[in-house]
Amino acid sequence: MTADFSREQAAMIAGRARVAGVDEVGRGPLAGPVVAAAVILDPAAIPDGLADSKELSAQRREELCVLILASALAVGVGSASATEIDTINIRQATLLSMRRAVGALPLSPDLVLVDGNDPPALACGCEAIIGGDGLIASIAAASIVAKVMRDRMMARLSLTYPAYGFAGHAGYGTAAHRAALKTHGPCPAHRYSFAPIKGVWSR
């Protein structure tokens, strides 16, 4: 199912000209940052096929990301590092990454629509929508950009720390990743506040 632009159109009719969708990726992995994106779509140039990034193939996400970056009025990306996650906890780091993504937008939004039920504190209006990444075009676009950007970050980390295979599993706790942890221990990109690292290793 593809997302649509009706929620944004209603907000625009009500006087909120710039509506940003926000979503994050990377709450659950054992390593790497949590990454959020904010996207203000151009009503006249919405890419076809926007949907929850989890429902799309990697190739289709890449294709749509290129279209979103080329056609959107504004795109912002923000992240919180593994160290920040360990310091302030994953919930607060996720909210921080969302605020950073909105802050990175070259245009200030009049309204932010966020996937889920835990919106960040923002200067503009902000609404949380459960399942928004599959319903709201702007949020779907943000989910795609966030996923593609985080995957690229993890691929770069894989070059620095090749023993863990980050490019293949993006830091999630796969059997291969857990086996690498047992063999090599964690690296600086790991989240030391997450099991099975917590209580066994420290930075």
Keywords:
203 residues; 8 helices
Spatial shape: elongated
**Strands side by side in the biggest sheet:** 3-2-1-4-5
Main sheet?
Answer: 5 strands, mixed
Q: Which structural class best describes the helix and strand composition?
A: alpha/beta
Please state the average pLDDT score: 96
Strand content: 15-25%
Q: Uncertain segments of ≥5 residues (pLDDT<50)?
A: none
Task: Give the % helix.
Answer: 40-55%
The tally of strands reads 5
What's the order of the H and E elements? HEEHEHHEEHHHH
Q: What is the terminal separation in angstroms?
A: 43 Å
Radius of gyration: 17 Å
Q: Helix count?
A: 8
Describe this structure in words.
With 203 residues, this protein is α/β, with parallel strands linked by helices. Helix content is 42%, strand content 15%. The protein has 8 helices and 5 strands; from the N terminus they run αββαβααββαααα. It has a 5-stranded mixed beta sheet. A hairpin with an 8-residue loop joins strand 1 and strand 2 (34-40). Helix 2 crosses helix 6 (137-160). It starts with 5 loop residues before the first helix and ends in a 19-residue tail after the last helix.
Write the topology of this structure.
Layout: H1 6-13, E1 19-25, E2 34-40, H2 58-71, E3 74-80, H3 82-88, H4 90-103, E4 111-115, E5 125-129, H5 132-135, H6 137-160, H7 166-169, H8 175-184
Parallel strand pairs: 1-4, 4-5
Antiparallel strand pairs: 1-2, 2-3
